[in-house]
Amino acid sequence: MQRDLRHDLRLRAAASVIYDAVYPGPEWAPVSFDQAERLETVHYRQAVEAALLARPVLTDRAEQLSLI
Hints:
Elements: H1 9-22, H2 33-39, H3 42-59, H4 61-66
């Protein structure tokens, strides 16, 4: 799953937040998000996959309105 996030800044930001939340320090992931992105580590790929899975839920306007 190679996905270039340079053109999708929101998806990249979401993947970065997920990466930092799930892998909070060096005991969980050996490198920072930027390094993981360059190296396409398994941690990076998992964070991107999570962001892709979350995107429809987060962008569904009907769901957001029902929660208000």
